C-alpha cells in the first residue's frame, strides 16, 4: 500500500514560513531543486490545501512562459503538471490541470488514493492539512527539508496537538547550501 509522506521546507526552528507569511529565507538551490524534482517524479499523487494550491498553480502553465529560466525549471513544470493533485478547500469551486477538489474528508481521500492501482507515494503538504492528517495518524513518513535559518515564528511544520509521536530516522542528506533533508518513518 502507498505511503503518505509529509514533505515541506522548514526553518531550523520548525516553521514553514516566517511571522510575516514569507518564505524568502528558502532561496532556490539548483542541487536541491533537482533532488526535489526527482522525488516528485516518483509520486503517485499530491494532496494540499487551498493556499498551497494557489501558490503552486503557477506551475500548471509555467512552461509556456518564454522567460522561464533553465531546463531544470521546465522539467519541474512538466512533472508537476502531469502529477495528479487533490485540493482541500471550502472556497474554491474549480481547479486547473490534473487537479481535482476533494470530495471527502482527509481520511477518505487518502484511503481512496492509497487503494488506487499503481506505484508511488502520496505527498501531503501545507501545514494545516498535514496537521489534520497527523492528528488522525494518517502520515507514514515526514520528509522535512531543514533550511539553516531561524525565523522566530510563523506557521509550524509539525502539528501543535500535544500528542507524542515516535519517529525513526531512515535516511538523510546534506546539501552544499546547508539544507538537510531527512526521512523519518512513523514508529507504529
What does this structure look like?
With 188 residues, this protein is α/β, with parallel strands linked by helices. It has a single domain (4-186), classed as 3-Layer(aba) Sandwich (Dihydrofolate Reductase, subunit A), CATH 3.40.430. Helix content is 27%, strand content 27%. It is built from 5 helices and 10 strands. It has helices at 30-41, 50-56, 71-82, 106-115, 127-135, and strands at residues 4-11, 15-17, 45-49, 85-88, 99-101, 122-125, 141-147, 155-156, 167-174, 180-186. The strands form 2 sheets. Strands 5-4-3-6-1-7-10-9 form an 8-stranded mixed beta sheet. A two-stranded antiparallel ribbon has the order 2-8. A hairpin with a 5-residue loop joins strand 9 (167-174) and strand 10 (180-186). Helix 1 packs parallel to helix 3 (71-82). The mean pLDDT is 90.
Amino acid at each position: 500500500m502507498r505511503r503518505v509522506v509529509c514533505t515541506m521546507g522548514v526553518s531550523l526552528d520548525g516553521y514553514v514560513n516566517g511571522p510575516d507569511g514569507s518564505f524568502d529565507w528558502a532561496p532556490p538551490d539548483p542541487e536541491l531543486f533537482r533532488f526535489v524534482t526527482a522525488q516528485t517524479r516518483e509520486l503517485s499523487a499530491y494532496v494540499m490545501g487551498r493556499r498551497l494550491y494557489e501558490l503552486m498553480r503557477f506551475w500548471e502553465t509555467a512552461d509556456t512562459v518564454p522567460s522561464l529560466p533553465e531546463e531544470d525549471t521546465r522539467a519541474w513544470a512538466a512533472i508537476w503538471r502531469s502529477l495528479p493533485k487533490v485540493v482541500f478547500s471550502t472556497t474554491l469551486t474549480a481547479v486547473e490541470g490534473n487537479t481535482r477538489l476533494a470530495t471527502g474528508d482527509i481520511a477518505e481521500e487518502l484511503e481512496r488514493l492509497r487503494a488506487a492501482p499503481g506505484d508511488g507515494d502520496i505527498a501531503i503538504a501545507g501545514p494545516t492539512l498535514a496537521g489534520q492528517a497527523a492528528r488522525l495518524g494518517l502520515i507514514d513518513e515526514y520528509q522535512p527539508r531543514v533550511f539553516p535559518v531561524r525565523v522566530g515564528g510563523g506557521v509550524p511544520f509539525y502539528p501543535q496537538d500535544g500528542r507524542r509521536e515516535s519517529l525513526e530516522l531512515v535516511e538523510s542528506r546534506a546539501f552544499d547550501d546547508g539544507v538537510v533533508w531527512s526521512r523519518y518513518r512513523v514508529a507504529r
